[in-house]
Each structure stands twice: as C-alpha cells, then as structure tokens.
Amino acid sequence: MNFLHLERATLDSFLPGLDETLARRPLTELESAPSPAIDAFREAGGPGLLVPAQNAGSGLTPLQAVRVQRAVGARCPSLAVATTMHHFSVAGLVEAAKYGTGVEGLLLEAVATDRLLLASGFAEGRTGQNILRPHITAERRGERILLNGSKMPCSLSRSMDLLTASVTMKDDDGVDRLAVALVPAESPGIEVRPFWRNPILAGAESDEVVLTDVEVDPEMVVLTDVTADAVPDSLNVAGFLWFELLLTAAYLGVASALVERVLERPGAADDPTPYLVGVDGAMLAVEAVARAMDDEEWGDALLVRALTARYAAQDAIAETTRVCLAALGGMAFIGSPDGSYLAAAAVGLTFHPPSRARMARPLRDWLDGRPLRIG
C-alpha cells in the first residue's frame, strides 16, 4: 500500500531495519513499560539522527525528521513521543553550540557515536503555569552550580544517559534568566520516581526526575536571554520550532496507524478520503513549515505557522479517529484493543504545551504587532 510509503522509506534509509523490527512486535508489547522499542531505536543508531554530519551524526533536515517521526508514530506511539523529546534536546544542543564553549560539539559527537539518549527536562506538566518558567533552579556555589527541583513527566526517564533541563539562574546583575543545563544521568542526587499512571503511552517512560543538590560544571550550563516576560530568544524559538513539528508529526503517525487499519480491513472498497484527507492534509502543513526552516528566518512568524499546523493537526486527529473507529466497527473494538488504544494515544497531542487556550492571547497580541510570548 502506498499510504505511509514515503515516510517508511525515509525511516528505512536512515535507520535500516527499525521499521521491520517494530512491525514484528504486537502493539501491546511495544507500548508496555519497559518497551523493547527504546533499545531497538538505540541499536539502530536513532540517537544521532539530528546530530550534524560534522559531529558524526546523520544530519537529518527538518523535512526528513518529520517524516521519520510520522513513520515511527505509526508503529509505536510511545517511542515516537519519547524520541521527539530526545530529538528536541539534540536540536537545542545544536543551537547552544553556536553560543557555547565548544563542549556542546563534543557532546553531540558522543550522542551519535555512543548512541546516548537525552531526556528532556523542560518545563511543562503543571496546569496554568507558563512553560518558560522551569521547576528546577540553578545556584552558583563557588566554581560549581547546584541544581534542585523536579521534572514530571520526563520521557526516557529510565533509559536516559543525559538530562537536558531548563533551569532558572540569576545572571551577573541578579536577574532571573532561563538557562539550559546538561546533566549526566548517573550524577549523585538524581532520582527517578514513578509518576505516569496511565497505560496509554506508558512505554515512553514518562516518570518524575528529582534533582537534589546535583552538581554540574558551569560549562554544562548555557544562559539564555529569556527573562520573566516569556519572550523567547533565538535558542528557544529554535527549540519550539523543532518541538512542535516533531511532536505533531509523531501524533499524526499514531492517527495514521489507525487509518492504515481501516484501509486494510477485509473487503475495504469504500471512499478512502474521510480517513486520509485530515491526517495527510495536516502532515502537508507540517512539511511546509519544515521546508521553510531550510531557507527562512527562524523567528516569530515561522513559529506561529508551526503552531497553526499543530492546532490544525489536533482537529484533524479528533475527526479522523472518530470516523476510523466507526468504520472498524464493534467487532474490531471487541476483538482487539489496538484501535481504541491508537485513538486514545493520538489525542495526546492536545495535552502538550503550549495549549491552544494558553496561546489565545499571545497569538492575538502577535497579530496586533506585539512580540510573540509563549503561554
């Protein structure tokens, strides 16, 4: 079948055999915790996909990356969500390397060659709180920096080699600023606690990571220009662009797995457009922004387009999952949990930041000519 052929061909060109490995296992097994999909991803060389070629990585373009994420999402939703957080962290490290001390490049090479997994400890998960206000603080003590706080949920919490975390830290003028810290997972003071209680997406290992007086080298902390006004700087704009596109593609892949089951059901000869048009149209919007990342400025205008594609995908997923479950029918619902699981998992895109409700005022302000703020 030609549906998802391009995405799976892209995945196979960079991670040969991964799609086949995932396809051989039942969905229930892949979505369990611990999931065998994470080791399969690591063994296939997945950690280095977004690492630049000069740092021994695959150097995927944004367009290639979103196609890979859709393909992964169509096989294993938990892996797609978890690896989105890894790729987002790698992309942030690539951007930080432009302003850092040079250690970032060495870390990127280690990610690719040693197949290290990065967990994303960036602020989210607390209703009503701005996502640019982290739950982890950084305090200078002599020549070291101490981190305290927690991140919940934190995908790849039990498989991570490094934690990349947003933290608040005072600059030389005493102003609280957003910073990005890189923390080895085996550092003293790091503890992983159970947090995720829903069987949906349990394989993403989204538990709580607690940091208590965790020491890091100052070279492993990159201070940004973001303060309490929540106006993102270039580093954060880049991060949000990657995050929104990769995440949206991943969840479109989950919905696409449900579409694929409808298209391949016995005796299927009905009009395929009610199942195809929504997810494929939303993916075209994601791809349009991904292409634009290659030749346009990474600024507010492009980020707004990424958010628009993401919110359009949420609507498409809601409608597509509804019509697909109806088309599969009651016997499919009774006979296998796969359809209802995929429908429930695909809706998860709605819960990631920034929510449409939180961005309503910031988007209105941006349309009226003010700087874009992230709610």
Automatic annotation (TrEMBL):
Top-tier EC class: oxidoreductase
Name this protein carries in UniProt: Acyl-CoA dehydrogenase family protein
Domain of life: Bacteria
Keyword terms: FAD, Flavoprotein, Oxidoreductase
EC code: 1.-.-.-
Keyword presence, Oxidoreductase: yes
InterPro entries assigned to the protein according to its UniProt record, in alphabetical order: Acyl-CoA_Oxase/DH_mid-dom_sf, AcylCo_DH-like_C, AcylCoA_DH/ox_N_sf, AcylCoA_DH/oxidase_NM_dom_sf
The keyword Flavoprotein is annotated on this UniProt entry: yes
GO molecular function, one term: oxidoreductase activity
